[in-house]
């Protein structure tokens, strides 16, 4: 069983639902859901989102390993990227101002 299937099974059991109940809510057959849960069938992104919505969790909660907190794993990297993006936006604003100033200078000649 893969991580995704294991997480889906745990969510199902946590809610006290049978495979049949979940399959019905997802509008798929019981064997199709069983294959998802056992990892026999890979699920696409839209099905993953549907399952996450059903269990009221994020898709990251379903695809992450047990004990991992996907939000905290990338928190520092995300903050770093946000900071770099803000710096780039400041540079773009400065360059746009220079372009406007040069355009006005040429226009006045």
UniProtKB/TrEMBL annotation:
Assigned keywords, A-Z: Coiled coil, DNA-binding
Segments forming a coiled coil: 78-105
Residue intervals of the HTH cro/C1-type domain: 8-63
Pfam families registered for this protein in UniProt: HTH_3
Keyword Protein biosynthesis: no
Record-linked InterPro entries: Cro/C1-type_HTH (IPR001387), Lambda_DNA-bd_dom_sf (IPR010982)
Keyword DNA-binding: yes
GO molecular function annotation: DNA binding
UniProt name for this protein: Helix-turn-helix domain-containing protein
Species annotation: Pedobacter nyackensis
Organismal lineage: Bacteria, Pseudomonadati, Bacteroidota, Sphingobacteriia, Sphingobacteriales
């Amino acid at each position: 069983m893969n991580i995704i299937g294991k997480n889906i099974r745990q969510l199902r059991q946590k809610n006290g639902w049978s495979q049949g109940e979940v399959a019905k809510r997802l509008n798929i057959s019981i064997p199709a859901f069983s294959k998802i849960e056992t990892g026999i069938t890979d699920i696409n992104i839209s099905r993953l989102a549907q399952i996450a919505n059903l269990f009221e969790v994020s898709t990251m909660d379903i695809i992450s390993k047990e004990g991992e907190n996907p939000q905290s794993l990338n928190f520092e990297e995300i903050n770093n990227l946000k900071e770099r993006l803000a710096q780039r936006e400041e540079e773009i604003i400065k360059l746009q101002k220079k372009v406007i100033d040069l355009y006005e200078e040429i226009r006045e000649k």
